[in-house]
Amino acid sequence: DADGSAAGLLCVFLLFLDLGSKFHFPEKEQLLRIYENTLPGAIYQLQAASDPDSGTNSVRSYKLSPNDHFEIRVRESDEDKMPFLVLKKAVDREITTSYKLLLTAVDGGNPPKSGILNITITILDINDNRPVFSRDTYSVTLQENSAIGTVVIRVNATDMDEGPNSEIEYSFPTLNNKVHEVFELDQATGEIRVKGEVDFEDTEVYKLDIQASDKGHPSMSANCRVVVKIIDVNDNWPEIEITSLSKNVPEDSKPGTVISLISVTDKDAGINGKVICQLNKNIPFELKPSFKDNMYSLVTKDRLDRETNSQYAITVTASDLGQPSLTASTTLSIQISDVNDNSPEFVINPLDLYIMENNAAGSSIISVSAFDIDTAENAVVSYHIIRGDGTQNDLSSFLNINSATGVVYSLKSFDFETLKTSHFHVLATDSGTPSLSSNVTVNVFILDQNDNVPVILYPVSANGSAEGVEEIPRNVNAGHLVTKLRAYDADMGYNGWLLFSLQEVSDHSLFSLDRYTGQIRTLRSFTETDEAQHKLLILVKDNGNVSLSATATVIVKVVEPKEAFAASDVKNAVKDEEENNVTFYLIITLGSVSVLFVISIIVLIAMQCSKSTDYSSKYLQDTNYDGTLCHSIHYRSGDKRYMLVGPRMSIGSTIVPGSNGNTLVIPDRRRRDSGEVGLCELY
Prior knowledge:
One of its GO terms (molecular function) is calcium ion binding. Residues 26-133, 134-240, 241-346, 347-456, 471-570 form the Cadherin domain. By secondary structure, the chain is mainly β. The strands form 15 sheets. It has a four-stranded mixed sheet, with helices on one face. Strands 9-16-15-12 form a four-stranded mixed sheet, with no helix packed on it. A hairpin with a 2-residue loop joins strand 4 (70-77) and strand 5 (80-87). 11% of the residues lie in helices and 41% in strands.
């Protein structure tokens, strides 16, 4: 320092002047050690200079080189002058670690002589300085999920003291379990490292208090704070919470009906915590955001129909906007509950019922069935017959139905000859609230049975029996028409197709019977040997499966020509009256049958036009029937041509022809002049 350097130079100069002098200090240098905390006023004894001279030539004074902290004080005793160093001002080792002073002793001789003592004062350290951190607060960022051992930051503190007083140890001054679980501190270097799991969602900011302590006695310490901000990474999947859910949704719910409330959360922050929600496609539902963030309402978007889809699996998918994006999903099962929105339906409408006449009263004739695509009570169907107006063709009053099964029962036996076609309506009603209903029309076709015996219209005697007498001249030629039998059968089709046959005849060589027309003709001329009276027993039968028949008796009397003409006049008068009556009844009968036939044909044609179902195949259940209404058979008898119209038969089947009871004689246009006629058999 400056004071020490000046004192050294002065000492050298004085030594040069005092060469050879015996005036001196015992030692050239004196060392002193002073603690820096020594209070001013402290006194330290110095070496005294020795001078062999005495009196005025002995040591007179001591001078100390100039300085701010020390001064010299001389104590006299027994002519000795003892120098003492006095601490005038406190010293600080951290400012000056040592002082070098010159103590000069001067005698009283002339010229005066002096001696020099080098004083070295070492300032001893005491622990009077605390450690000092480079910063009071350290801020650092750390990415979450950092690996264990990652260095977060290194704090640094210094101590101006020396030795142990300047050696520093770092520590956490407070016990914070969370900090200790995540971070560790190197006591020697001040490095903070990751020790455990760093989770942004657990703690976003850590505040660590660090203490630096020296090893002095007593130890001194200082504190700083380290703020560790955790940087979020997208490591959390969105979480979907269903706060309310209606598992059963009525199918008549209006669009916009709330089904469920859904909340979505993501523990991440920023864009990593922003979530987008969506539903699977092709479902009648949608998500509507709520006024709160990440809250949604699951509502119906379209009309629901349980009969189309009774259950929906709704998948809610939540995706955050982080990179890479994380996705979570959950599935809701929604059942669509039924309401009564469907009427019962009949598979076939209208229905066709073919029933054989003479059915047993009380027996079932048909079973109707309707289905309802609703469920439970809404699908339970009951059946009722809609009662008609009570007219002649109204069947509803003669029918009953099982309301649970739909089986229809007839309360009476039907007669084809009285009623051929009719219809009734069945109402099907479900058990829903309000109930829905629909009806079906059942068209009834009565099928004919062979239950009517042929009726002989001619000949008929006065007492009503089928007997007649015919007189013919003996001179008639072969082929002469004796008479013609007329018969009628109320049945239809084959059951009403009549055939004539001779059961008994007195002479087979004289008479022939046309099996189709019922005409009786002579086979040859009469001879003198032939009997005058002949009895013919004729059988008339229909073509039913179980054939029914009737018989007629014709008495043929052979008379001489003159008698025949005389008798003929009388008989013709009677016969004309009888034939007029018979013709009247025949016309009425044929007219009635023709009207019924025309009505039946019109009904069948209308039904064929309204639908493609082949009624004829149901009407005639015959293995040989090919579905055609009729066909014609042409044959010739005498001078006339006949056409019989009947059901068409398959190849190989046998046709058993009937009578001309229900025949219509039609003139043949092609041979009108020749007198041929056509016969059309009616059914």
